[in-house]
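hey so i finally got around to running the thing on that chain from the lab meeting. sorry it took forever, my laptop kept dying and i had to restart like 3 times. anyway pasting the input first so we r on the same page abt which one it is
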Amino acid sequence: MGGDDFSDPRDDGGWGYGATADGAHMNMVIYALYAAKQGGLDIPKATWERAEKWIRRNQTETGGWLYNLVDSGSPCAEGVYGSMPATGLWALRACGVPVEDPQIQKGLGWIEKYWSITRNPAATSWLYYYLLALQRFCDIPPKLDTLVGHNWYEEISNMLVAEQQPDGRWIDYEDYFPTTCFALMFL
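ok and heres what got predicted. didnt touch it at all, straight out
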């Protein structure tokens, strides 16, 4: 799903597996598109516009984002949980939306209300994915030194250094290899 051909009426502008798009897959596609753009590749304007439209539609009245537009749950949590607002925020910025945008401000309100660097708010796992999405949001130029009143990089990097295992790994809810990858990508 996704790509540059949006002629298929089932295509809602997002990316995912099966019949629906979701925030986790959209996160990885937006990251790839943003990296390609930073590397000098021309990404069609229509791709960014469709992605932005999907991201905007997926925000709830709480300011947070859902995993997808089909239901309020995900494989990790019920309803809005930290990874999706962080992903929605960073993806909007990658699409070129300024921090002053009302939807970004509403999303920042959700992050502020549920701020945590020791757990993925409203979820039981994927802390490091959540922290990486916050980092991506803050690192898009113009870079943000603070996030909802916090020196986000100092706080999170200090926590990551303290949580690293003696053998170099990081462990979230279980010993899962991507957790270490997310921590290293953050740092």
